[in-house]
Amino acid sequence: MACQYTPTMAKITRKPLLKAKSVVSKRARNLSGPLAATQKIGKSAAKAGRPPRQARASGRSKALRPWTPAEVREAFSRFRRDNPEPRGELEHLNPFTLLVAVVLSAQATDAGVNKATRALFAVADTPAKMLALGEEKLRDYIKTIGLYRTKARNVIALSQKLISEFGGEVPRSRAEIESLPGAGRKTANVVLNMAFGEHTMAVDTHVFRVGNRTGLARGDTPLAVELGLERVIPPEFMLHAHHWLILHGRYTCLARKPRCEVCLINDLCQWPEKTA
User: Fold this and answer.
1) Which of 15, 129, 204, 257 is an active site residue?
2) Is 186 a catalytic residue?
3) End of a domain among 196, 218, 238?
4) Which domain holds residue 68?
5) Over the Cα atoms of the chain, what is R_g?
6) At which of 196, 218, 245 does a domain end?
7) pLDDT by residue (tens digit) across 232-255?
8) What is the spatial distance between Cα 188 and Cα 183, in angstroms, rounded to a whole number?
C-alpha cells in the first residue's frame, strides 16, 4: 500500500532539512582545514596567472605553446648575462648550517630566517654544537620564525641523526637528506645544489609560479614542474637555473602584480595576460 503524503508529514520532514541547511551554511562560513586550504590555493592560482587545480584538466586542451629549445637557451642566456653568479639568499657557513636554514625557511621568509640564524650559527654551526645547545635554547633563537617549536624539534632530531648515522656530515644523496627530520625534496635539492654543486632544480612557490605562468614547464605539482624544467633547460645552465628562476619570481614575476615592463624574457613568455 502506497504511503499517502499529508501536511503533517511535511511539517515533520521540513525541520530536519532546514536544520541541515543551517549546518551547511554555518560550516561554509567557518571553513578551516583542508577544504579552506584548497579554496585558498585556487584563489592564489588564479592570481598567479594559472587556473585553480580543479580547472586545469580542461585547460590542458588550451595548453600554451611549448618553448622551443632556442627560446629556452635565449632566456637563460639573458639571465646569465644579467646575473652571472646568482646566490641563494639564505645565509649559511657550511653544509650543515645551510641544511638548518632551509629547514627553518619553510613557510617563512629568507630575511626572517637570516635574522634569527646569524646569532644561532655563531654558537651552533655543527650538529654536535646544536645538540649541546639543546631544544629549549634553540627555540629562544628561532622564536621569531613561524612554527618554531616544531622546527626546533626537527633541527635537534636531524642533528642527532647526522651524528649517529652520517658521522656528523651532511649526506650527499637526495634520499639520505630526505630521511632527515624536517627535510623534504626541495630541501634536498637546495642543499645538493648550493653545498655540493649538483645540477638539481629546487621548486619553491616562485619557481612553481614562473614555470606555469610562462609556459616554460607547466605542472600541477612541484615535482611535475621540477621534472619539466630539468627536461628543457640545457645542462650548461642547470647549476644556477633554480636561483635565476627564484629571483625572477621573487622580484619580477610577482604573484599579484607581475612587473612585465622590466621582465628580461617578456617577448619569450607565453602568458596570455602579460603586458608589453
Assistant:
1) 204
2) yes
3) 196
4) 64-86+200-262
5) 24
6) 196
7) 999 999 999 999 999 999 999 999
8) 7
